[in-house]
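Chapter summary example.
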Amino acid sequence: MKKIVLSTLLLLLFANLQAQEIKKNKNIASLKTQPNAFLSKFYYTINFGAIFYPFSNDNLIDGYATDTFSKNYFSGKLGFGYKIKENVALQFGVIRPAAWFKYDNVNNIGYDRSVWINAWYLSLKKNIKLTEKLSVFGEVGAANVTRVGFSINDKVIYPDAHFGNFLYGFGFNYKLNQKWRLALNGTFMPKSAKHNQPSISQTTFGFEYHLQKLDATVALDYANDKKYFFPKNLLQVSYGTSAIGFGANRFFSMNLKVGNFESFGVPVFWLGDVKASQSFSITYQRLAYRSQKIFSLDWGVSATYFKTEATAQDVFAFSIFPSMRFYLLRKPKFDMYANYSLIGPTLLTVSNIDGLETGPKATFQDKMGLGFFFGKNRDYNFEMRIMHYSNGNIFTRNAGVAVPIQFTFGKTF
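The structure predicted for these 413 residues follows.
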């Protein structure tokens, strides 16, 4: 009888310890310092380099030609990846030049015309280890290629095109640590005789940032460390006016004219043909993941109103978006950060804004900014940001909307 009682007590004790361990593991898994099952296999990649596409007079209709071309080779390859296995990943992203290929002085009568190229891609990437840190990879997939041609006096000289294409590539990864990898990429898309499109090739250098599952003790230590502030919730109101100009939008889309430079700046954002004269936004963001000190990922929703410059058209935009925040300075009285958000699904109340072909009401929101958290408990927030709405050149007509600097005030809780 005593043995039965003792065995029962031991069994109950063991069950209680197991329940506590399960609860502890669940609590650790729910920490914002520990990426969930999806995020732990997620990475993003940013690369810059040169792009080549041999456009020529052969691409134009008979009777039109030029002796010179303006070629800006600088380009970017931005994307996200999801690791299906440790060395196999599914990638999604965009390839685009910083400035468009231009036919100078067509027919020697003063016509300068540009050809725009943009490619969204979905690919499968396979890494093969050469050493503990160095690996070679191959990439294969499909690209959604959009080309915007040009007309002269309402006559189409080089038509628009929108088509699927094969994409392949190779390169090298160098593993700096568990999170950071350097990347050297070569990416290629063959020519399309059907669409009168020459081949596209790109060589870039950049990095990959991989989110990683942490040791449970480390994740708990990060979560309990009160030295670094990360807002769990952030509510913001924003106002912007075109009276201050579109200098920031032009600089970060490499469209700023400075002296003899026609395309001065850094190609990490977009401009847009539609210009907002006034804008007002309400934004809510919630923390999804954070590192120990520098990086956090939020999910957010926003409602934005803007009035256009050209026709004073009223437009509302409702968006859901991810937002990456990078902390640049941690000081006793404030924390300074930069944030970046891409491809936020958006519903506009108007299509083809200002009479321009901006595309359908379903589109995307992009935004980037610089901000501060301040106050004794970092209760308050100030941010300056620019915004952009477009369909990402998924369609041939994508005039886009440029929202100039918004001055943003926020409250954390």
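To summarize the output: Residues 221-412 form a domain with the Porin fold (CATH 2.40.160.20).
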